[in-house]
Amino acid sequence: MRIGVLTGGGDAPGLNPAVAGVVERATINGHQVIGLKRGWEALCVEDNRQHVVKLGPEIIREYSRLGGSKLQCSRTNPVAENNDRTELVKENFKKLKLDALIAIGGEDTLGAGAILCERGVPVVGIPKTIDRDLAGTEYSLGYDTALNVICDSAERIAHSAESHQTIFFLEVMGRHAGWLALRGGEAAFADIILIPEYPFSIDKLTSVLREQLKASEKMGFEHIYKIIVVAEGSHIAGEEEVRKDAKLDEFGHFSLGGVGNYLKSLLEHEFHHTRSSALAYLQRGAPPSQKDRQTGRRFGNNAVEMINNGDFGYMVAIQHSRLTKVPLEEINKSPSLVDVEKYYDTGRLNVKIEWTDQQK
Ligand code: F6P
């Protein structure tokens, strides 16, 4: 068999190990793997010679340890209402003599995969996004590495914050989901965590800060600083999320970013030294963690196994902590967001620290 593999959406640590896992199992099973560069774009252009690369076992060692995507990514939507390229995708699929396609991506890439599969393209999916908000799976590639970066960065920022007695906003990604902020902030012992699922009031934020500072003052100079981990999608109640600009991508998403700076500007008149830093793409560019390498390898291997079994229209998933497969359409269900009642303390604007039945 000839198996095509592509990575779509934003890059995430774990994509390359997943491709390595695909090649590993394909080699064992005597299949050929064709890498398709720049996500769905590879199948949406007439001349895709530059988009196509043969992937043999020689790539495994290198791919297994690298962040980003060697196959590159794009946010190309092959089934956009105003630009549907299904027929071109099918033609290219035939021209490249492919028998199956593995799409590695998030809600958009896999959602498009589900539609194309219904229309006759044999697709199998692998879930990735650092946001960890996909329906149908408890884990998506990249989340663990991004959490580690957040935790490590908060630690570094705390050194600077301590030295200058700063109120520091550390903005992290996650789009509309607060998992990265919540769990990254929890691990970093953040003083305050702001998540999109709980729109807050500026009065509440200021009063929590004042109280915390009063307590810190009693402990001595070196304690008068605060780390506030703020999710890029979090916002003041009644206000919109802060957007980077007015542009929409092919799937209709705005780019979020800037809420840390915005909050800093609202508070700096009262708190003498406030700073903000957005982690942005540093969260995605790190070398994949052990978990993202191992899970990527397993996802890749299992995706080929699914092709062997003819399980098209499914994606690899983790459910109840076990590796399994679910229909690709699951990806279109409501995203997995933070359950505020269960996991968030609205009084302290912070994570609820207690024993929970599952490690979400
Ligand atoms: O979905 C992953 C993600 O990193 C989000 O957390 C973030 O909002 C978005 O992608 C950024 O997208 P882009 O790479 O297009 O700026």
Q: What is the CATH architecture annotation of the largest domain?
A: 3-Layer(aba) Sandwich
- Give the total of beta strands: 17
Strand count, sense and barrel status of the largest sheet are: 7 strands, mixed
Number of helices: 10
Q: Which ligands, by name, code or SMILES, are bound?
A: 6-O-phosphono-beta-D-fructofuranose
CATH topology of the largest domain: Rossmann fold
* Sheet/helix structural class: alpha/beta
Helix content: 25-40%
Please state the CA-atom Rg, rounded to the nearest Å. 22 Å
**SSE order, one letter for each helix or strand:** EHEEHEEHEHEHEHEHEEEHEHEEHEE
Strand order, largest beta sheet: 3-2-1-6-7-14-15
User: Overall mean pLDDT score?
Assistant: 96
Question: What key attributes describe this structure?
Answer:
binds 6-O-phosphono-beta-D-fructofuranose; elongated; Rossmann fold; single chain; 17 strands; four-stranded parallel beta sheet; alpha/beta; 360 residues
Report on the architecture of this protein:
With 360 residues, this protein is α/β, with parallel strands linked by helices. The protein folds into two domains: 2-142 and 288-333, Rossmann fold (3-Layer(aba) Sandwich), CATH 3.40.50; 144-283, Rossmann fold, CATH 3.40.50. Helices cover 34% and strands 21% of the residues. The chain has ten helices and 17 strands. It has helices at residues 15-28, 60-63, 86-95, 107-118, 143-164, 179-187, 202-219, 259-267, 290-308, 340-343, and strands at 2-7, 32-36, 52-55, 79-80, 83-84, 100-105, 123-127, 167-172, 192-194, 226-231, 243-248, 254-256, 274-278, 314-319, 322-327, 344-345, 350-351. The strands form five sheets. It has a seven-stranded mixed beta sheet, with helices on both faces. The radius of gyration is 22 Å and the shape is elongated. The mean pLDDT is 96. It binds 6-O-phosphono-beta-D-fructofuranose.
